């Protein structure tokens, strides 16, 4: 059992949240950690360290409701190149985002010129409302990066969307090329990452590092 | 971006311009569509900054004369738009506390605050930054014939943590607005003096406004000017250079060339050393994380007065939570966050100041350093 305030629990929780954002997030849904309810660590000989977490999450667009979730995060021993194994179970239902996401999809598809934006949020923390879905899609992308690149000695957060450019496609997916700035808490570095997100209302998000 | 004014003279020129506009998808201001470009009629095109030179070159090559109508579109836009003010204003004598302010304005604010509250507030010289800017602290002190203990608070040791200087300013305003009417505050001031340093890392703060919003360190050069800045919160003389630091000057946790190598660190350390027998509590404000951190960062061995430190911190966190439900975690840096050495809070404790805390203000990572201005008020109110 770990004290909830211990840094290793917080780091594992950040990985779980990243993974969840990647899996369940979208332009109409951004998941946030409300509270870490329970954390337990198991040292598995020859394998690695496994964290068992109970998390309380909220949807930024629906803050009055929270959703509980359990997660298992396994950091494998001596593996600097492979992502932690994460499994999550969300208890209960997340608010439906079908309508909002379809509306976003239609809006972007009907743009004459490809969308380009930078510095989201801006220096004063502001996000123009029409860019909020792009911001939340960046959470999906950063969630993927955070899951893929975390170790027990790191804690990543998305600091800012430095640049985003839409790339028009001949198929039905939307494509956005992002430059994301990730803040790593232990080294305090802010690192740029290039990432491409394909998104479709039914097919969801697919993220690839550029 | 620039806007060019062109009057095409021949059909050939018209065709070339139509091709140029559609190939580069230039923003036509007049006419609206390439097909409406006519010889002898005004053509206004907005050219994005990276393409300006190329477009001008191709116009020259085709002997198409042009003149620049607008040299800097952004500047014009900025000038014509009124500065946005948040709808929940907290204005005291014209100063908007629910916005982030650049250093120039903070200097002016300090002068005004002293002027408007001269019976209570005095502005004092603390030292100079590397780039030779003056560091001032405000002393809030009720005249009295009994000696008073001191509470010191500094903000902005890390440039990008803008909510921190915003809090120091808010704090001063709250005290000064309410000390006559709020019994808690007036009792406070009967027995204690408050010393507030609104921005410790002035050079870095200015740099984060003008060049790089996510800058953290100071701006002193190292390695022949190939890299800049020391992490001032790794530069104090508390197990300096031992853990959670880097000796590489390009690292964001570069601890400097030695303990107190930086003028900003030295200015603060010298002052605190000189007043140490009177300082009861040291507070240093940071973001983000929602944490109240106690000594130490360099070891998990608890300080001698750990119980007292923890109890006071827990009560503070509970009071904070009571306002808007915001959760703060409490504990030592080494247990809650990471290992680090050379922090101001640890050094202050080692020289004998009993209560020493680092506050990591809102949030927990969703906006991080870029905390929206609409959270300034609730963050400051709950932290009061």
TrEMBL record, chain A:
Task: Name the Pfam families for this protein.
Answer: LXN
Does the keyword Repeat feature in the UniProt annotation? yes
Keyword list (alphabetical) reads: Protease inhibitor, Repeat
Q: Does the keyword Nucleotidyltransferase apply?
A: no
- This chain's protein is named LXN protein
Name its species. Sylvia borin (Garden warbler)
Domain Cystatin LXN-type, first and last residues per copy: 1-99, 116-210
- Which SUPFAM superfamilies did the record assign? Cystatin/monellin (SSF54403)
* UniProt GO cellular component terms: extracellular space
From TrEMBL, chain B:
Membrane topology of the entry: Lipid-anchor; GPI-anchor
What does the entry list under GO cellular component? apical plasma membrane; extracellular space; side of membrane
Single GO term (MF): metallocarboxypeptidase activity
Q: Which UniProt keywords apply?
A: Carboxypeptidase, Cell membrane, Disulfide bond, Glycoprotein, GPI-anchor, Hydrolase, Lipoprotein, Membrane, Metal-binding, Metalloprotease, Protease, Signal, Zinc
Q: Which GO terms describe its biological process?
A: proteolysis
Query: Does the entry feature the keyword Iron, yes or no?
Result: no
Which metal ions or organic cofactors does this protein require, according to UniProt? Zn(2+)
> Per its UniProt record, what Pfam families does this chain match?
Peptidase_M14 (PF00246), Propep_M14 (PF02244)
Instruction: Provide the protein's localization.
Output: Apical cell membrane
Decide whether keyword Disulfide bond is in the record. yes
Question: Active-site positions, per UniProt?
Answer: 360 (proton donor/acceptor)
Give all residue intervals belonging to the Peptidase M14 domain.
99-384
According to its UniProt entry, what is the function of this protein?
Answer: Carboxypeptidase which preferentially cleaves C-terminal acidic residues from peptides and proteins. Can also cleave C-terminal hydrophobic amino acids, with a preference for small residues over large residues.
Record PANTHER family: CARBOXYPEPTIDASE O, PROTEASE FAMILY M14 CARBOXYPEPTIDASE A,B
Family, according to the entry, reads as follows: Belongs to the peptidase M14 family.
Q: What is this protein called?
A: Carboxypeptidase O
């Amino acid at each position: 059992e770990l004290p909830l305030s211990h840094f290793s629990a917080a780091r594992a929780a950040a990985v779980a949240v990243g993974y969840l954002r990647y899996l369940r997030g979208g332009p109409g849904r951004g998941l946030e950690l409300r509270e870490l309810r329970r954390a337990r660590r198991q040292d598995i000989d020859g394998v690695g360290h496994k964290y068992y977490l109970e998390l309380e999450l909220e949807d930024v667009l629906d803050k009055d409701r929270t959703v509980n979730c359990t997660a298992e995060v396994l950091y494998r021993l001596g593996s600097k190149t492979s992502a932690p194994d994460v499994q999550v179970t969300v208890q209960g239902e997340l608010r439906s985002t079908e309508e909002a996401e379809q509306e976003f999809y239609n809006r972007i598809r009907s743009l004459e010129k490809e969308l380009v934006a930078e510095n989201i949020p801006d220096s004063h923390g502001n996000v123009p409302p029409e860019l909020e879905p792009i911001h939340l899609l960046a959470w999906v992308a950063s969630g993927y990066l955070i899951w893929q690149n975390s170790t027990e000695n790191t804690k990543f957060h998305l600091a800012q969307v430095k640049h985003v450019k839409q790339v028009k496609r001949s198929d039905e997916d939307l494509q956005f090329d992002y430059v994301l700035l990730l803040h790593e808490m232990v080294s305090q570095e802010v690192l740029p990452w290039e990432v491409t997100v394909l998104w479709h209302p039914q097919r969801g998000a697919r993220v690839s590092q550029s | 971006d620039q806007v060019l004014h062109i009057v095409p003279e021949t059909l050939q020129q018209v065709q070339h311009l139509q091709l140029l506009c559609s190939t580069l998808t230039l923003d036509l201001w007049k006419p609206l569509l390439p097909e409406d470009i006519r010889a002898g009629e005004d053509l206004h095109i907005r050219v994005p900054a990276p393409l300006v030179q190329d477009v001008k070159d191709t116009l020259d090559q085709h002997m198409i004369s042009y003149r620049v109508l607008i040299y800097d579109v952004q500047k014009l836009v900025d000038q014509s738009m009124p500065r946005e003010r948040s709808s929940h204003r907290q204005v005291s004598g014209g100063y908007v506390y629910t916005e982030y302010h650049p250093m120039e304005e903070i200097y002016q604010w300090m002068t005004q605050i002293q002027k408007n509250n001269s019976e209570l507030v005095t502005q004092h010289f603390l030292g100079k930054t590397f780039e030779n800017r003056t560091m001032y602290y405000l002393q809030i002190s009720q005249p009295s014939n009994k000696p008073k203990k001191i509470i010191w608070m500094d903000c902005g040791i890390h440039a990008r943590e803008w909510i921190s200087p915003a809090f120091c300013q808010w704090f001063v305003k709250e005290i000064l607005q309410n000390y006559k009417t709020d019994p808690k505050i007036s009792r406070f001031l009967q027995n204690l003096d408050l010393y507030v340093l609104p921005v410790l890392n002035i050079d870095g703060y200015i740099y984060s406004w003008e060049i790089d919003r996510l800058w953290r360190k100071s701006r002193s050069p190292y390695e022949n000017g190939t890299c800049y800045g020391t992490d001032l919160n790794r530069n104090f003389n508390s197990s300096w250079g031992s853990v959670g630091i880097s000796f590489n000057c390009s690292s964001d946790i570069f601890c400097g060339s030695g303990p107190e190598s930086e003028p900003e660190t030295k200015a603060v350390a010298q002052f605190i050393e000189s007043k140490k027998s009177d300082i009861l509590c040291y507070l240093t404000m940071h973001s983000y994380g929602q944490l109240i951190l106690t000594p130490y960062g360099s070891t998990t061995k608890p300080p001698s007065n750990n119980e007292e430190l923890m109890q006071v911190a827990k009560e503070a966190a509970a009071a904070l939570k009571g306002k808007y439900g915001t959760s703060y975690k409490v504990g030592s840096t080494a247990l809650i966050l990471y290992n680090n050495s050379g922090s101001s809070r640890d050094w202050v404790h080692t020289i004998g100041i009993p209560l020493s805390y680092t506050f990591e203000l809102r949030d927990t990572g969703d906006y991080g350093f870029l905390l929206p201005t609409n959270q300034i008020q609730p963050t400051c109110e709950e932290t009061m």
